[in-house]
Amino acid sequence: MISDSQRVWLVLLALAVYVFICVLSWLNHVRRNKRTQQQIISDEGVVLVAYASQTGTAEALARQSAAQLDGNTPYQLLPLNQVNEDVLANTRQALFVVSTYGEGEPPDNGAAFARHFLKGTFEQDLSHLQFSVMALGDKLYQQFCGFGHQLYQGLTELGAVALTPPLESCASDGHNPQQLISQWQILSGFHSDAPLEEPLLNTEREFVPAKLINRRWLNPGSPGAPAFFISLQTQQAFDWQAGDIAELKFPGGEIRHYSIASVAKANIIELIVRQHRFAEGGLGIGSGWLTQHADLQDQIELRIKPNPAFYAVDATVPAIFIGSGTGLAGLRAHILERAQAVGEQPLATSWLIFGERDPQKDAWLQSEMQTWQQQGLQLSLAFSRDEQNPDYVQDVMLQQQQQFLSWLEQGAVIYVCGSRKGMAHGVDAVLQQMLSQTQFEKLINQQRYRRDIY
Ligand SMILES: Cc1cc2nc3c(=O)[nH]c(=O)nc-3n(C[C@H](O)[C@H](O)[C@H](O)COP(=O)(O)OP(=O)(O)OC[C@H]3O[C@@H](n4cnc5c(N)ncnc54)[C@H](O)[C@@H]3O)c2cc1C
Ligand SMILES: Cc1cc2nc3c(=O)[nH]c(=O)nc-3n(C[C@H](O)[C@H](O)[C@H](O)COP(=O)(O)O)c2cc1C
């Protein structure tokens, strides 16, 4: 039996426990509520940092700019093509870091965005969006930072509010990432005290001397301008991968780019170079030096320009290599790298569609192509001056459409290398003709349409 006073104490204890539990659950409720509110605030406060970049400079700058945001500001980093209607609808603040290619065109990973949102057909109101554009380009081109300006104007027309004017940067002047990021931070109000780390841009890579050790004329008698197979040798062993570009500095300081035609072996870099001759008879600075003016053993400066948009996929994944003329360079590097990767296995997952002019005089690298065929590579040649059967590479794609589509169904990656106007535009048009818009964009978004075009 318990006494009355014990009973009172027990009731008081039960009451205290009850009050304690109530207070605890109320505190929990308040804490949870507060967290949810914080979550909502930070979701709304996510800054979009989007980039369109071919050779990685704009991408590196975008990453760096994002890293410079105040530690409490969450961000989302995306290639421009992945910025869709939902992302635009849910973003309040954005930074776009974009370079320009062709003649004022977007890099490949911004082309689908440009088609959707900047052609005047998109009607969503973007007045909730505040943005800045960092525009990378080169004053050597007529439409300096053309795509950056197109993007700026397009977003403004859709109602988005610019926080800064377009922030231009020129490759020939040497991009200055710190200056650009500070400019953006000051003008946009995204100031942070985070220490500015150096992005790794190609301008920080060192040039090394390279000796011309071999030069072979590939097309004597061709109706096209002379093209040469060039070998350069550096003192130290060099590292690069198929898809990378050689940046050459010629006497006088002019810089030119050449797709690398070989795999990283020892310290020899091979190129395929077309001679440029002006109407008055003189030769282009770079191609003139490489194909005629320089003697064997003469030296120039070389550095590797990484070109990740044109890198290899696993050698077991089918690949269709399409190119004409000197575009063979970038494709050859890939085919050689694949041959190395598969070893004794056949090259059966590779298809080369190569175009030149004259079937007799333009049999570029004929014996090497025959070896690749023996190794299992499928070869299709197109000659535009063939009297019986004049063809361009895009004609071959159409003639073999069924097989082409079946390769794509099996997951093939398309590599296009060479002239932008003469060949790549034609290939692009045929591809868009063969595929629905959704299929075409899927190909791009899956990074199965890789280009090194100039
Ligand atoms: C990513 C990339 C990869 C490339 N890969 C290759 C490759 O693998 N192989 C290859 O051959 N090329 C390649 N190129 C092109 C190469 O970089 C050079 O543009 C090409 O060799 C011409 O340069 P050049 O110095 O010989 O000619 P330039 O001196 O630059 O002259 C080029 C053209 O400019 C005009 N021009 C310039 N000065 C004059 C003048 N005084 N009078 C009249 N016209 C003039 C002419 O039309 C002339 O043909 C690539 C380019 C890029 C961007
Ligand atoms: C083939 C080619 C075409 C280019 N066309 C243009 C152009 O039309 N306008 C421009 O301002 N810059 C042009 N550029 C310069 C690039 O935009 C510049 O080098 C930029 O830094 C590249 O950035 P990325 O590494 O992010 O692709 C061109 C460069 C190349 C190689």
From TrEMBL:
Domain Flavodoxin-like intervals: 47-189
* Domain FAD-binding FR-type residue range list: 205-313
A GO-annotated cellular component: cytosol
Its EC top class is: oxidoreductase
The EC designation for this entry is: 1.6.2.4
Top-level taxon: Bacteria
Gene Ontology MF terms in the entry: flavin adenine dinucleotide binding; FMN binding; NADPH-hemoprotein reductase activity
Keyword Flavoprotein attached = yes
Q: Name one Pfam family in it.
A: NAD_binding_1
Give the UniProt keywords, A-Z: Electron transport, Flavoprotein, FMN, Membrane, Transmembrane, Transmembrane helix, Transport
Q: Fetch the Gene3D superfamilies from UniProt.
A: 3.40.50.360, Nucleotide-binding domain of ferredoxin-NADP reductase (FNR) module (3.40.50.80), Translation factors (2.40.30.10)
Q: Does the keyword Transmembrane apply?
A: yes
| Transmembrane region(s) | 6-27
Protein's name according to its UniProt entry: NADPH--hemoprotein reductase
Q: Name the species this protein comes from.
A: Neptunicella marina
